[in-house]
Amino acid sequence: MIKEFVKAALAEDVGRGDLYALVEESVPTKADIIAKCDGVFAGATYINALAKEENLEVIWGKKDGETFVKGDVIAIINGSSHDVLKTERTLLDLALHASSIATLTRKYADIIAPYGVKLLDTRKTRPMLRVFEKYATRCGGATNHRMGLDDSLMIKDTHLKTIENLSEYIAKARKVIPFTAKIEVEAETLEIAKMAFEAQADIVMCDNMTPEQVKEVVEYRDANHPYILIEASGNISLKTIESYAKTGVDAISSGSLIHQANWIDLSMKIS
């Protein structure tokens, strides 16, 4: 999957061919990928795949998940001038996109680390980039939530509108979904959360609740269903995530890890 992805990314940029290569013969070239700001690096897995396809040698100064500061050499690229310059934008875009997500994700992860709460991403990803963007959140310190509808059964508020009896539905679901698949129920109130607990969901998601409301759900869980996991989600930001981590939830998910990541600054220089 990674091989096909990077080949398609390069093909998008090259089009019918790099016009630069029509003018002069290729010469041996060394290029540095340099950090122009601070951040967390991600993208090596994908860049290695592209480098292999294009006969480039990559000497890494940073590994996926490692921090960097302005001026650091992230990687040294060796190859022919035609190949290095043809792949320049694709290499940088892979590193920029992934590292930007990893950098923001690390900020979230560092805030909640003292509380032992898992940081989760969501399915709010760009079409056809889900695997790549979720890889980037892992580099930043998050744990992937489900990759798709086939990973686990999540019963959202929209699903609940179609279900007459949640307990009966979950009992029936356990007979038809894979044994290893978990069932998660989204709850916007304590009353819905109680219904999900009674129906024996594996995970209850407190969606768009205040930290005070989430704490009520946690206290009810601890007293009555201590084996059921609780996830907090919904408009959780860098400013609010610590208040949710303090409630005692098991995990916090946020789409912001991906869709609020601002691009950092990396560049390639021929040396």
TrEMBL record:
GO terms for cellular component: cytoplasm. It comes from the Bacteria. Keywords: Glycosyltransferase, Pyridine nucleotide biosynthesis, Transferase. GO terms for biological process: NAD+ biosynthetic process; quinolinate catabolic process. Belongs to the NadC/ModD family. Involved in the catabolism of quinolinic acid (QA). This is nicotinate-nucleotide diphosphorylase (carboxylating). It comes from Sulfurimonas marina. The lineage of its organism: Bacteria, Pseudomonadati, Campylobacterota, Epsilonproteobacteria, Campylobacterales.
